[in-house]
């Protein structure tokens, strides 16, 4: 029996663009369903083409999901997504993901050797999502 943690990101009319960007960086297969695909789901006609649900399957252990929050849903201000952490010992893949996610965003801590022996970096991508990358040391 397996258990997975799958981050689910929320956007305001940027989910398709953001998830397509994540696919360009992380690879994998992206599936997108709009509100219109599900009969409108009570959103205004102008928002029917927004993403009701999307899933980016990168591997058996990496699944990123996202959706647009309709305008009538009160989020109490900005949409806060927290941080997504990527970790492991595949230095080439994790370094490439860090570099790709940083394009158009802001690196808040460069990916470099950390005091605990791993390589670690943080960034905020172009959609305002915070990412942490930890590459296990030898």
Automatic annotation (TrEMBL):
Gene3D superfamilies: 2,3-Dihydroxybiphenyl 1,2-Dioxygenase, domain 1. It comes from the Bacteria. Residues 12-133 form the Glyoxalase/fosfomycin resistance/dioxygenase domain. InterPro entries: Glyas_Bleomycin-R_OHBP_Dase, Glyas_Fos-R_dOase_dom, PhnB-like. Pfam families: Glyoxalase (PF00903). This is VOC family protein. It comes from Nocardioides aquiterrae. The lineage of its organism: Bacteria, Bacillati, Actinomycetota, Actinomycetes, Propionibacteriales.
């Amino acid at each position: 029996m397996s258990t997975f943690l799958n981050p689910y990101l929320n956007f305001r009319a940027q989910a398709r663009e953001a998830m397509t960007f994540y696919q360009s960086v992380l690879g994998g297969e992206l599936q997108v369903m709009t509100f219109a695909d599900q009969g409108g789901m009570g959103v205004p006609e102008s928002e029917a083409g927004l993403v009701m649900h999307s899933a980016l399957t990168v591997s058996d252990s990496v699944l990123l999901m996202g959706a647009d929050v309709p305008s009538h849903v009160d989020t109490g201000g900005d949409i806060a997504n927290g941080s997504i952490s990527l970790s492991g010992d595949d230095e080439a893949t994790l370094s490439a993901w860090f570099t790709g996610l940083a394009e158009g965003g802001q690196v808040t801590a460069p990916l470099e050797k950390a005091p605990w022996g791993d390589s670690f970096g943080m960034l905020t991508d172009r959609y305002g999502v915070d990412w942490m990358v930890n590459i296990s040391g030898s």
